Structures are given as C-alpha cells and as structure tokens.
Amino acid sequence: MKNRKIIGIMACDPQGVIGNKGQIPWSYTKEFEYFYQTVKNNIIVMGRKTFDSIPTKILKNCICIVFSRNTPLQSYNNIFFIKSLDDFWQVIKPFTDKKIFMVGGTEIATLFLEQNLIDEFLLTKINKNL
C-alpha cells in the first residue's frame, strides 16, 4: 500500500539514546529549531508517549498522526489518533501535498523500519554524553 515517501527524523547521543523516561535528554536550541523547521506544516507520525512530550509549538503547525493502543481518543483539528498502519494509510490519503516524517519513539520507529516504510532518515547526533 506504500506509495508515499516517509522520512525518519530523530536525534541521539553518542550511545544512540533517543529519549529517557519519555523525555528528550538534552536541550539544544539549534537542534530543536532544525527539527521544527524541517517538520513544520507537514505530517508527523509518532507514538502516544512521544506525542505527550512534543512541545505545543510543533503540534499546532503539523498534521499529527498518533499511534495509541488506547484509542478511541478523540481526533481533533490537526491531530489523529490511530491504532494501525491501515488507519495510517487512510489518514494520510487527503494530504498529498505534505511530506511525512516519522518522529518516534522507539516502538513506532521499530514498526516503520521492520515494515521497510522509511525511505530516508535524518539523524542528528548530539556529541555529548548525557
């Protein structure tokens, strides 16, 4: 069913850590601004824990697709709660002019990688042990 390019985008520390207890374990303005400018006005796909940790500034300027085992959470405005890849393909159909970014977390990244859905990956390496 894949006919759209999906781009993974994440940052990690030198050990490959992308998060810690639901939070990003660093605070770098330049990295945040790069992420924001890259995904702004496009589709971002994530798990519910990642959704809970993303700043509102990003969420309000994107179409957000959130995988959650606990649906039915009510979808609203630009945020869609889904349970499956089938749901994902249905939600993105009308947004043909938008890029699609998979932003994590680990479970969603694993799902998309195992299903060979990632066409490109943008990885920022934070050169500091945290």
UniProtKB/TrEMBL annotation:
Residue span(s) of domain DHFR: 5-130
EC category: oxidoreductase
E.C. no: 1.5.1.3
Keyword Amino-acid biosynthesis among record annotations: no
Alphabetized GO MF terms: dihydrofolate reductase activity; NADP binding
InterPro entries: DHFR (IPR012259), DHFR-like_dom_sf (IPR024072), DHFR_dom (IPR001796)
Pathway field: Cofactor biosynthesis; tetrahydrofolate biosynthesis; 5,6,7,8-tetrahydrofolate from 7,8-dihydrofolate: step 1/1
Recorded superkingdom: Bacteria
PROSITE patterns: DHFR_2 (PS51330)
Gene Ontology terms: biological process: dihydrofolate metabolic process; folic acid metabolic process; one-carbon metabolic process; tetrahydrofolate biosynthetic process
Sorted UniProt keywords: NADP, One-carbon metabolism, Oxidoreductase
Function: Key enzyme in folate metabolism. Catalyzes an essential reaction for de novo glycine and purine synthesis, and for DNA precursor synthesis.
Family note: Belongs to the dihydrofolate reductase family.
The protein's name: dihydrofolate reductase
Source species of the chain: Rickettsia slovaca str. D-CWPP
